[in-house]
Amino acid sequence: xxxxxxxxxxxxxxxxxxxxxxxxxxxxxxxxxxxxxxxxxxxxxxxxxxxxxxxxxxxxxxxxxxxxxxxxxxxxxxxxxxxxxxxxxxxxxxxxxxxxxxxxxxxxxxxxxxxxxxxxxxxxxxxxxxxxxxxxxxxxxxxxxxxxxxxxxxxxxxxxxxxxxxxxxxxxxxxxxxxxxxxxxxxxxxxxxxxxxxxxxxxxxxxxxxxxxxxxxxxxxxxxxxxxxxxxxxxxxxxxxxxxxxxxxxxxxxxxxxxxxxxxxxxxxxxxxxxxxxxxxxxxxxxxxxxxxxxxxxxxxxxxxxxxxxxxx
Length: 313
What we know:
Layout: E1 2-5, H1 12-20, E2 25-29, H2 33-40, H3 60-68, H4 77-80, H5 89-100, H6 103-119, E3 123-128, H7 133-142, E4 147-152, H8 155-164, H9 173-194, E5 202-206, H10 207-212, H11 214-225, H12 231-242, H13 259-269, H14 272-281, H15 283-289
Parallel strand pairs: 1-3, 1-4, 2-3, 4-5
């Protein structure tokens, strides 16, 4: 069982696609989306097996666990009906079934489709931007075969991308940068603390390494997961990192892009004044992950790297 733990606009759709295209993987895209939404409204969720009984804040861990263990009937009906079900190869058949059979009775009728996809796969994986490393302790303690891939991207690229989709405003960039970098660093601190207790079960991956060295990093991830990196997977990685082929979904989640160009996009689109704010606030995180601060002279010079060479850890 695998949790791809990451943050909004940090390359997780791209990384998740590299994982989910292995036929041995059952993959779920953002299973906590509905739970976060209802938590903000302080509302109850409805469960097929319990009705309106559990408050939202207590159910995130259980939702991840249920997807990972194929216990679909323990998941709330809003999550089972969320639009993100269409963003995974393995949950799309179920989503199409629900579109043909709406309502709770339709969900019950279609659940076997979802269960079959999950049960037949040796590896189950959930990708989430709505969880944290501290709360992973419960699942790691309970299930000895859960692994975590902790995906991190340069904060300058992440914040630029969040702004581009209207998630944040640069009018309060300092606040957003502080909140984001503190969150990531907190997860890294917890990860460093618990790794000795869970050897070979937590892998920290830097998005830039996957984008710049896709085959080497994909091989490292697959080895960590115990998966076979086949020729067809290598061909798929080649397509989605070179921008070749016709596999783009034509939306903001499209992964069919030139990955090396994407890595440097923030350097040609952000003002130096914005970069300087992020660099100052996020310095503690930079030191942990090998990111380098920019100056007015090297920001646009793409031959000067903005991160050190490092391996996933």
